[in-house]
Write a structure and sequence with these properties.
CATH architecture: 3-Layer(aba) Sandwich
Number of strands: 4
Helix content: 40-55%
Structural class: alpha/beta
Low-confidence stretches: 1-8
CATH superfamily: Response regulator
Largest sheet: 4 strands, parallel
Mean pLDDT: 94
CATH class: Alpha Beta
Oligomer: single chain
Number of helices: 6
Distance between the termini: 9 Å
Shape: globular
CATH topology: Rossmann fold
Bound molecules: 4-nitrophenyl phosphate
Radius of gyration: 15 Å
Number of domains: 1
Length: about 170
């Protein structure tokens, strides 16, 4: 069976991070995942989106950019976009920051969706069902907590991708 892999298994992982505005949590998650996958030398398609449209075309919140920079990641080039039904076919996994994002995404999912939809922290041992808290209305300290959460998610994704590669 070693060399018998179907297209989906052979394809690089495609993961979409989802929040409300796509300017705080999901771009931080994308930035953390980009850094973690690059460090592990694993190729992946990584993107982020929001369920809302208020910030479409905007760069990440300045506080999110500053926190990412402090942690060695540059997310300044990202631009917010809204989740579209086609994302449910383009990505293997759509990871929502909180329950509301998850519900709103489900409402948009087309009948032929192939993506798996989960909460981001479902991937982190001991944190199943938890939300990544929205730092938008809080102080700068919230963004450090967001980075810690999304880094744990990124690490779990890399671990899973690495074991899929070695067993593939
Ligand atoms: P995010 O945070 O969903 O993590 O990007 C928010 C960004 C903007 C708003 C709310 C949350 N807003 O209401 O504009």
């Amino acid at each position: 069976m070693d060399d018998v892999r179907n297209d989906r298994e052979a394809r690089k992982p495609a993961i979409l991070f989802l929040c409300l505005g796509n300017i705080c949590r999901s771009p931080l998650a994308e930035g953390a995942a980009r850094a973690a996958f690059a460090a592990a030398g694993i190729d992946a398609t990584l993107d982020s989106a929001g369920t809302g449209d208020w910030h479409v075309g905007h760069p990440p919140d300045r506080r999110a950019q500053a926190e990412a920079r402090r942690r060695g990641a540059d997310i300044g080039g990202l631009r917010a976009r809204q989740l579209v039904p086609g994302d449910f076919r383009r990505f293997d996994l759509i990871l929502a920051a909180d329950d509301t994002n998850l519900r709103d995404a489900l409402a948009l999912a087309p009948g032929d969706a192939t993506a798996e939809l989960r909460l981001m922290l479902d991937l982190v041992p001991g944190r199943t069902g938890e939300s990544v808290a929205d730092p938008y209305y809080g102080d700068d300290g919230g963004f450090a907590a967001t980075w810690d959460d999304v880094s744990a998610v990124a690490a779990a994704l890399v671990t899973a991708a690495a074991s899929a590669e070695s067993s593939g």
